[in-house]
């Protein structure tokens, strides 16, 4: 017995328990973020399709640099070995394959990119044009210059920028894009299948202009030929640039 009448073994038990119980573990901090990825749709013959990829890369070297790419294999029937060869061929061309779609999981080995599910469908149903047109389009207003490295993504409607878009910036809209200044960088409108979307700007010096996935790169845009306010629109599968009258 110790002073105060408390048994010694009970005091030892408390000391052991105090030593075992340490600081509480910290909670893991997580945040949700959205990224825009290019989706490639391979078709057979694969060799010819890869040649088309090479033409695009030669016309716009570095355009896909650092951008995630998803392969949608729904239009081809490839074995696991063929999928691996296709992924390797694209990676040799500097394309980063984020994941695969449109293929059975049984055909994917552990060395291949993961199977992605739950991606947002970017095609507007053609069977309900009146219903879609009746909806009031949402819009996003940016009242400052969009600087290099910034990415503005608004898939639900139009984007209006009261200022210029710097080289290296990216504007992605489900509707049209309005720039009250010089448009540099990349501008992609109508990403939800909106063929009537347009891009408006006071001056065009863009790295890329795209409507519903159809695009023109800087090599196909002679900035010196365009003066004053311009509009970019889609005619068939060709991206057109014309003055705003």
Description:
The protein has 245 residues and is an alpha/beta fold. The protein has two domains: 38-107, ACT domain (Alpha-Beta Plaits); 129-243, Pectate Lyase C-like. The chain is 19% helix and 28% strand. It has helices at residues 8-20, 46-59, 80-92, 129-134, and strands at 38-40, 68-72, 96-101, 138-142, 151-154, 157-161, 170-173, 177-183, 186-189, 199-204, 208-211, 214-217, 230-235, 238-243. Strands 4-6-8-10-13-14 form a six-stranded mixed sheet, with no helix packed on it. The chain has a five-stranded mixed sheet with strand order 5-7-9-11-12, with no helix packed on it. Helix 2 (46-59) links the parallel strand 1 (38-40) and strand 2. The longest helix has 14 residues, at 46-59. The termini are far apart.
Compute the separation of the termini in Å.
101 Å
- The main sheet orders its strands as 4-6-8-10-13-14
CATH class of the largest domain: Mainly Beta
The number of domains: 2
Shape: elongated
Secondary structure: helix percent: 10-25%
Low-pLDDT ranges: 6-12, 121-134
Overall average residue pLDDT: 78
Proportion in β-strands: 25-35%
Q: Helices and strands: which structural class?
A: alpha/beta
CATH architecture of the largest domain: 3 Solenoid
Instruction: Determine the CATH topology of the largest domain.
Output: Pectate Lyase C-like
Number of strands: 14
- Rg to the nearest angstrom? 27 Å
Tell me the series of helices and strands, N- to C-terminal. HEHEHEHEEEEEEEEEEE
Note the total helix count. Answer: 4
């Amino acid at each position: 017995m110790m002073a105060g009448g408390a048994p010694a073994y009970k005091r030892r038990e408390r000391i052991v328990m105090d030593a075992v119980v340490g600081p509480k573990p910290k909670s893991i901090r997580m945040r949700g973020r959205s990224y825009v990825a290019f989706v490639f749709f391979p078709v057979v013959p694969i060799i010819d399709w890869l040649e088309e990829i090479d033409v695009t890369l030669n016309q716009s070297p570095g355009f896909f640099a650092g951008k995630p790419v998803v392969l949608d294999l729904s239009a081809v029937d490839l074995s696991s070995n063929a999928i691996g060869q296709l992924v390797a061929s694209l990676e040799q061309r500097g394309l980063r394959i984020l994941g695969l779609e449109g293929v059975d999981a049984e055909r994917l080995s552990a060395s291949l990119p993961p199977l992605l599910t739950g991606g947002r469908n970017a095609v507007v149903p053609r069977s309900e044009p009146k219903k879609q047109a009746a909806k009031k389009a949402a819009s996003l207003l940016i009242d400052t210059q969009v600087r290099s490295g910034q990415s503005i993504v608004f898939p639900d409607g139009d984007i209006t920028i009261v200022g210029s878009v710097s080289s290296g910036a990216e504007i992605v809209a489900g509707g049209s894009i309005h720039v009250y200044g010089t448009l540099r960088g990349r501008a992609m409108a109508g990403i939800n299948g909106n063929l009537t979307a347009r891009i408006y700007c006071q001056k065009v010096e863009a790295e890329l202009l795209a409507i519903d996935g159809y695009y023109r790169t800087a090599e196909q845009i002679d900035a010196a030929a365009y003066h004053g306010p311009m509009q970019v629109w889609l005619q068939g599968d060709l991206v057109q640039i014309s003055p705003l009258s």
